[in-house]
Amino acid sequence: MEKRGTAVGRLRVLTALCSAVFAVGTVLHGWFVVTPDTLEAMMRMSGRTAAQAAAEAPGFLVGFRVVAAAYVVGNALGLLALRGWPWTFWLVVLVNATQAAGPLGLIPPVLYRAAVEAHGPVGLLPTVVTDGGALVLVVVLVTRFLRTRATWARA
Questions:
Q1: DSSP characters for the chain?
Q2: Most buried of the four, 4, 85, 91, 126, by CB within 10 Å?
Q3: Does pLDDT of 68 surpass 60?
Q4: Residue 80: which residues within 8 A CB-CB, separation 6 or more?
Q5: Where does the sequence pass through the membrane (predicted)?
Q6: Domain locations in the chain?
Q7: Nearest C-alpha neighbor of 134 from the set 78, 59, 87
Q8: CA 20/CA 63 separation, integer angstroms
Q9: pLDDT at 3
Q10: Which candidate, 84, 65, 68, places its Cα nearest to that of 25?
Q11: For 91-132, what is each residue's pLDDT tens digit?
């Protein structure tokens, strides 16, 4: 076990703090930004009629929130980085790499346009913080791993 204040200890604390922020940001995005109205607007922007959008939005919302809940759990598990277990390093990398991929095409870009129309620029804030932050965290973790060839538990 390393001493408090070492680079490894700071990295684990940073990871846990980021995981907490990303879990909250995912809840905000999945339950307060992406609403039935936001999804219906997204679908209308994508060429669906109002009736089609109203019929399809509830099913899309259920699927979207199941995925969001999985990310909330994954990010919450990132708090275990403080324990220093090797599997937490790889879980954090996996969760955050896939979360960072959302704006790169896994989430339809028109959803972001609908969020801005519904909530203003603040509607993008949870995505910018969680997905952008996830990308930064993955780069930091992978860079450290490539440099040391060790997870935080074995450094």
A1: -PPTTSHHHHHHHHHHHHHHHHHHHHHIIIIIIS-HHHHHHHHHHTT--HHHHHHHHHHHHHHHHHHHHHHHHHHHHGGGGGGT-HHHHHHHHHHHHHHHTGGGTTS-HHHHHHHHHHH-GGGGHHHIIIIIHHHHHHHHHHHHHHHHSS-TTT-
A2: 126
A3: yes
A4: 16, 88
A5: 12-34, 62-82, 89-112, 124-146
A6: 1-153
A7: 78
A8: 23
A9: 52
A10: 68
A11: 999 999 999 998 887 888 999 999 999 999 999 999 999 999
The overall pTM is greater than 0.85 = yes
For the record, the structure tokens of 111 come out as 């959803």
C-beta separation of 17 from 128 below 8 A: no
Short-list 88, 116, 117, 100, CA closest to 8: 88
Q: Can you tell me the distance from the alpha carbon of 126 to that of 68, in angstroms, rounded to the nearest whole number?
A: 12
